[in-house]
Amino acid sequence: RGRLPVSMMLITCSRFHLGVLGDRLTVLRSPSYVTFLDGQWPISGEKVPSLVALTMGFSVHEDLDWPGLQAGPLFQRPRANVLVVVRGVDSLSLPNNITSYPLDNPVPFTLDSVASTVHTLFADSTPVVLQLAPSEERLYMMGMANTVFEDLPVTLQQIRGRLSQEGSILNSLPVNSLSRNNEADLLFLSEIQVLHDISALLQRHRHLAKDHAPDLYSLELSGLEEISRHYGKDSPQFQDATSILASILQKFAADVFGVYSNNAVVEVVTVQNFETPLTRRSRSILATNQISNSQRPYNLAYQYNFQYAVIFNIILWLMIVLVLAVIAIAYNLWNMDPGYDSIIYRMTNQKIRLD
């Protein structure tokens, strides 16, 4: 497995959509069988991991009482889920055809539980679990995925050094009022470079998207927040950075969506600031996930586990097959002619005739 430290944050803005204020959850891309309904139903920040798990076809410990996600087919799940979190901005200006929902109670959250589920259910495969965050950057992969992403920069210094190498976004991206010598600007540009490199690696190694194990990408961007703090939200630097990031994010979503053959969900969460500081605990997602719940003081088991859907389908279809078999046997027995269809009666008839 590899490790990649990057400070990250996300925001998108292409066309201004007036009248949309507050923290948002925006769905940039989703396959046809994952249906997000149009509406302004707020979703709590602590429920975002459950939403990601449900879009990937996993079970959750607590029901998600939110009408925005429609139930999908049992035997079809996305091959990847990409969640990009943006700190420092409460709303994004996006095209009108993109589904977006208000985000209530913007508490810090991680996708560690979803990553642990992916590893547990697909431990014998090569799922890619990529997590990038400002305070703890982690890049977990299994099997062949290690060698695919080993060329990504490992430290923030290496990432900034990547900007001066061949294939840097600075050669093709108009930075406008942004400076290549300012610390905040370099942080923002380095995040854009990492998004570009991840997309490029996935396009060169499309075999990662063809296995049966789903992949998980969790990217948290903080460069725009630093620019806002350094220059202010009304500055031309912030406006230029917002426009650049909006364009890059939509291209990134389109590229990932294409790599996974339109079988990926790409979401964007924009939050001005979290209600409580996010404290991350350094641990491996490969370790067993110990679930603690203060609402279960007696350590009672949940009513079902992550295998519930599999067990349910096995029992359901086995019962249906057995019922149909019993009906078919009973029908044939009811319409059987003992003189012709039964060897017992046939032999008895012959014996009587001989006597």
TrEMBL record:
Q: Which cell locations does it reside in?
A: Cell projection, Dendritic spine membrane; Cytoplasmic vesicle, Autophagosome membrane; Cytoplasmic vesicle, Clathrin-coated vesicle membrane; Cytoplasmic vesicle, Secretory vesicle, Synaptic vesicle membrane
Q: Where is the Renin receptor-like C-terminal transmembrane spanning segment domain?
A: 280-355
Q: Give GO terms for biological process.
A: positive regulation of Wnt signaling pathway
Q: Which InterPro entries match?
A: Renin_r_C, Renin_rcpt, RENR_N
One GO molecular-function annotation for this sequence?
signaling receptor activity
Topology in the lipid bilayer is annotated as: Single-pass type I membrane protein
Q: Which UniProt keywords apply?
A: Cell membrane, Cleavage on pair of basic residues, Endoplasmic reticulum, Membrane, Receptor, Signal, Transmembrane, Transmembrane helix
Q: Does the keyword Transcription regulation apply?
A: no
What highest taxon heads this organism's lineage? Eukaryota
Q: Any stretches that span the bilayer, and where are they?
A: 306-331
Fetch the Pfam families from UniProt: Renin_r, RENR_N
Which ranges carry the Renin receptor N-terminal domain? 22-272
Its annotated function is as follows:
Multifunctional protein which functions as a renin, prorenin cellular receptor and is involved in the assembly of the lysosomal proton-transporting V-type ATPase (V-ATPase) and the acidification of the endo-lysosomal system. May mediate renin-dependent cellular responses by activating ERK1 and ERK2. By increasing the catalytic efficiency of renin in AGT/angiotensinogen conversion to angiotensin I, may also play a role in the renin-angiotensin system (RAS).
Q: How does it assemble?
A: Interacts with renin. Accessory component of the multisubunit proton-transporting vacuolar (V)-ATPase protein pump. Interacts (via N-terminus) with ATP6AP1 (via N-terminus). Interacts with ATP6V0D1; ATP6V0D1 is a V-ATPase complex subunit and the interaction promotes V-ATPase complex assembly. Interacts with TMEM9; TMEM9 is a V-ATPase assembly regulator and the interaction induces the interaction with ATP6V0D1. Interacts with VMA21 (via N-terminus); VMA21 is a V-ATPase accessory component.
| Protein name, as recorded | Renin receptor
